[in-house]
């Protein structure tokens, strides 16, 4: 899986297929998050071309951010976007490597961000990714998750199945994506200690944006 070849055209592809819906899904929880906490150590996985990172860095100017993104093309575009906005700084570190190969500290981050990332994997790799991210989260951490979803019934389900088939087919050919169906990452996250704080659907329930929080562990003696 490599999105570098698509990096120069990704924003155009996104706008032509989904308009502004994907970006609204990425950023839809930011105001709620800001009202609840000011994260200081943030892990963003699969950021892509920096469209979310730019807004996040502006809204949370004291956060130290680690971005794990395997695509060299996407990393280059995200870094260029930050430079143009005057936001390139040492507080934003890029790791150009796959998540499951990255050496990341455990219990270190107070915010995990996965935006249209977990849909890239077949079930076993998705679950391994969720487990690794869960291990990286500290007590009372938040998890911001936005992605596609498959409604349970009706015309929305038929519409979602059509779009998912088109998108998986396209990215399979253009980026070497091996996944062909949407894994149940919401259930995988819910199987951790994270509890859902808020969730809302977009684009006729084809997309969703959710905010989770890990409760503080009670220390016993």
Automatic annotation (TrEMBL):
It is an enzyme of class 2 (transferase). Residues 42-132 form the Methyltransferase domain. One of its GO terms (biological process) is methylation. Keywords: Methyltransferase, Transferase. Pfam families: Methyltransf_25 (PF13649). InterPro entries: Methyltransf_25, SAM-dependent_MTases_sf. One of its GO terms (molecular function) is methyltransferase activity. SUPFAM superfamilies: S-adenosyl-L-methionine-dependent methyltransferases. The keyword Cell membrane does not apply. Coiled coil: none annotated. Its EC number is 2.1.-.-. The keyword Methyltransferase applies. This is Class I SAM-dependent methyltransferase. It comes from Thalassobacterium maritimum.
């Amino acid at each position: 899986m490599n999105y570098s070849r698509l990096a120069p055209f990704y924003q155009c592809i996104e706008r032509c297929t989904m308009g502004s819906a994907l970006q609204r899904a990425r950023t839809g929880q930011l105001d709620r998050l800001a009202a609840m906490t000011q994260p200081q150590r943030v892990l963003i996985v699969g950021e892509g071309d920096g469209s979310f990172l730019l807004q996040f860095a502006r809204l949370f100017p004291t956060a130290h951010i680690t971005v794990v993104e395997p695509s060299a093309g996407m990393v280059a575009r995200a870094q260029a976007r930050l430079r143009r906005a005057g936001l390139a700084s040492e507080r934003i570190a890029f790791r150009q490597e796959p998540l499951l190969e990255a050496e990341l500290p455990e219990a270190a981050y107070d915010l995990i961000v996965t935006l249209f990332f977990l849909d890239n994997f077949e079930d076993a790799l998705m679950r391994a990714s969720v487990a690794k991210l869960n291990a990286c989260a500290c007590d009372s951490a938040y998890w911001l998750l936005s992605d596609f979803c498959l409604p349970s019934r009706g015309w929305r389900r038929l519409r979602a199945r059509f779009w998912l088939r088109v998108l998986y087919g396209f990215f399979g050919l253009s980026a070497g994506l091996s996944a062909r169906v949407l894994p149940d990452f919401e259930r995988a996250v819910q199987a951790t200690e994270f509890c859902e704080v808020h969730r809302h659907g977009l684009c006729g329930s084809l997309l969703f944006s959710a905010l989770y929080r890990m409760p503080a562990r009670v220390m016993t003696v």
